Amino acid sequence: MQNQDPALSKTIGEIVADDYRTAAVFDQYGIDFCCGGKVTLAAVCRGKKLDPAALLRAIEAVQRGPVDRSRNFAAWELPFLADYIVNTHHAYLRDNDGAIAAHAAKVAAVHGPNHPEVIEIARIFDRVAGAMEAHLRQEEEVFFPAVKRLDAARKSGTAPAVADRDVVQASLVRLGREHEEIGDDVHAVRQLAHGYAPPADACNTFMLTYRKLQEFEEDLHQHVHLENNILFPKAARL
Q: What's the rounded Cα separation, in Å, for the pair 46 and 37?
């Protein structure tokens, strides 16, 4: 297409990494900017049958607002960004995964006969919680320390350790694959839960579980975006 807006050839992840405010627009349109962030804006518009001009106008509208420098994640140093992810998103997961899994199991036991989808939701979330535990440990104990050492070597002008380079390269492949697997599972949960809309006969625990599952997904989107679209590319360049 001639005279196509250059923004349409950028990936969703690149757009959000350049300006975090655009995440709100993609959320509004139901566009995945974390696990699905490698798709171009033009491809997303074709796939979802969206008007590219309307989407670009929405993006431009949020970009006219003030920039909150405390959330300008792309400008942060790698060590600071890694610590932020641990202290914010890893902490959230450790504080909430067990409780969500327990609530989901309870709902499955009580409501499973009438709503068999909650049995599958509980099973999937239990798998996600287990996968996240190993995933966070890999990042905190292996990947992030190696990234910080490579970043320190770059700043000091010294040669990076070969072992750290190998660790980062291998971790990028492993962690990226795990993000896709976890993202697929969370998408499946959303589909089974009909967008987290509880049925008419839902009890308080049922409704709480769906609210917490939605909260979990929203936190995961931000978490994976920070890694896939900002931290991982910067680490790869080291």
A: 15
- Give the separation between CA 34 and CA 180, rounded to whole angstroms: 9
19-27: Cβ within 8 A, 24+ apart = 19/62, 19/63, 20/71, 20/72, 20/73, 20/74, 21/62, 21/63, 21/65, 21/67, 22/59, 22/62, 22/63, 23/221, 23/222, 23/225, 24/62, 25/55, 25/58, 25/59, 25/62, 27/221
Match 């992810």 to its residue by tokens. Answer: 85
Q: Could you count the other beta carbons within 10 Å of the beta carbon of residue 153?
A: 16
Q: Is the distance from CB of 50 to CB of 25 less than 8 angstroms?
A: no
Q: Using CA atoms, how far apart are residues 228 and 215, in angstroms rounded to an integer?
A: 20
Place of tokens 């995945």: 32
pLDDT tens, 2-54?
Answer: 456 777 888 888 888 888 888 888 888 888 887 777 889 999 899 989 998 99
What is this structure's pTM? Answer: 0.82
